[in-house]
């Protein structure tokens, strides 16, 4: 009998293993071949659509008025192209697809260069690619990234989109980059909103990247919506294209450059104060939809004409000051119903060329309506060095910063004037000041940094509080003197003892030497001596060891446990006295100190206590601290570095704090130790040095 022996178990297992190995190799290979075959079909279909688009475009004059412009990129939705039935993407239905045209001036065989961009419902996509370069390798999957139909071809500035319904839409270009590409030239914030919207904010620009700038509109799927304050300030720019996604340009974002051209996006809603001030713009096109142009936004350019859109709701004071605009005029406020309010001047449009005698006369009325108010910032920084200003006697109010930094030498403040706002005449050149008895309110810094000489009466050099009852000689609220060295604060005026030094009374004066606070003073306001260069401040007790101002107790005595304000500037390392238990709000604000030693025993660090300092490296929080206020150690970089080099905080307290609230930043950071994310460099919080 013939022996018919079968497979042994070992032989059978060997066969299974071999088959498994073959399948492991074969299945991915087959899968790859299938996927790649589909990609090739995708590309073939895209080229077929482009070929049909060439016929449709050349035969149909419907869109010809838009196409033949070498400065325009045209996105033609595929629904406008006569296609045979069938899917473009073999992976699934098309979500969005465009044939993109760029007129080449007729310098080639065909008048247009053609490109393709598409995405299907499963995220299989082809980014903007030239017809000649389309290849299966250009197909990839990313469902989350939006299709960008606002990217320019070459250096073209204008974008037209012909949508699926055949409607023509103007758009501003949007350049898409990766995070790595963006980081080469920009600092930015990526924000995941609660509603799922991904937004980006441009916060800084590296001027080594060039003077002609096209700002990206999408960073790794995040849409750029905001240009942060001072981002491009003084970077030497000559031209800039702002992406169509941007809705807000913040204050001074592009100030102090050499811009001769700017393209504002169609979706722009807000232009912040001084956003484009001190450039060389000859003209500006304002898009429909723009709602706000803030104060001094285009001050000191070379604008000769402009047209404001009907959508504009607010235009700030001095928005177009110092421009050579023909037929210069005053800008008046607007009533709620849109009609002019001729009782309030809010600015001036022009370059002062109509004034040949250096006398700036403000009109008393317009169309029979008397002028009552000069609005805040109405003439801010309008260059009138040594000029005289003549106000009508109808004026009752001068707003904050109305004539700040104009350099005017004199002004008549009329009887009937009741209110002078904060910084109204800050940084001007008054050698004498006469304030009428009708004034009942004067804001902080109203006459700070003027030129009143020491020979003038002290009641003119020192600004005293005004009330409905008249002058309150017990309270100093400002200083208008020219002398900044070793000033002597009078202890009495008109027989009345000085009792109070008001908020910001001697702030921003660059005082040098020393100051003695009269012993009669029982109350001192916040920031009273902030941002000076003093070597000492005698609090009235004869101590001249530091420029620290201490809080006064309820009975008027000096409380050396609370630092109220600091009058020095740019000190390398401030050592806080061991008697101190609390640093008040704004205690070292804008002092630009580079470091601080906070002693054990301090329990509270107030809001903004060290904002606008220049801390470098490490800050140590002693174990006794139980409260740290909002932005006490704020870290950011604009036109200056504010604690921008602070990299570490030693938290000796063993307590958890909200470090995001304390230092600024995008992410929650409530812990004892950890990493605090910050757009200008993360901060490590540790528990020991």
Any idea what the shape is? Answer: flat
The largest β sheet comes out as: 9 strands, mixed
Task: Give the tally of β-strands.
Answer: 53
Based on secondary structure, the structural category is: mainly beta
**Quaternary:** single chain
**Helical percent range?**
10-25%
- Unreliable segments (pLDDT under 50, ≥5 consecutive)? none
Strand content: 25-35%
**Ends distance:** 92 Å
- Computed over alpha carbons, the radius of gyration is 34 Å
Number of helices: 5
Mean pLDDT comes to 90
What is the compact description of this entry?
With 689 residues, the protein is mostly beta strands.
Relevant terms:
689 residues; mainly beta; 53 strands; flat
Explained architecture:
10% of the residues lie in helices and 31% in strands. The model has no long low-confidence stretch (mean pLDDT 90). Strands 8, 9, 10, 12, 13, 15, 17, 18 and 19 form a 9-stranded mixed beta sheet that branches. The chain is mainly beta. The longest helix has 51 residues, at 9-59. Among the domains are: 33-173, no CATH class; 570-689, no CATH class.
Strand and helix map with partners:
Layout lengths: L8 H51 L4 H4 L4 E6 L16 E10 L8 E9 L3 E7 L8 E3 L16 E5 L5 E5 L2 E3 L1 H5 L2 E7 L5 E8 L6 E3 L1 E4 L2 E6 L11 E3 L6 E2 L11 E3 L6 E2 L20 E2 L20 E2 L13 E6 L5 E10 L9 E3 L3 E2 L2 E2 L2 E2 L13 E3 L6 E2 L11 E2 L7 E2 L20 E2 L15 H4 E6 L2 E10 L12 E2 L2 E2 L2 E2 L10 E5 L6 E2 L8 E6 L9 E5 L5 E9 L7 E2 L6 E2 L12 E2 L6 E2 L10 E6 L5 E2 L7 E2 L3 E2 L2 E7 L5 E2 H5 L6 E2 L2 E3 L6 E4 L3
Parallel strand pairs: 1-6, 8-12, 10-13, 11-14, 13-15, 14-16, 15-17, 17-18, 18-19, 21-25, 22-26, 25-27, 26-28, 27-29, 29-30, 32-35, 35-37, 36-38, 40-42, 41-43, 42-44, 44-46, 45-49, 49-53
Antiparallel strand pairs: 1-2, 2-3, 3-4, 4-5, 6-7, 9-10, 12-13, 20-21, 23-24, 31-32, 33-34, 39-40, 47-48, 50-51, 52-53
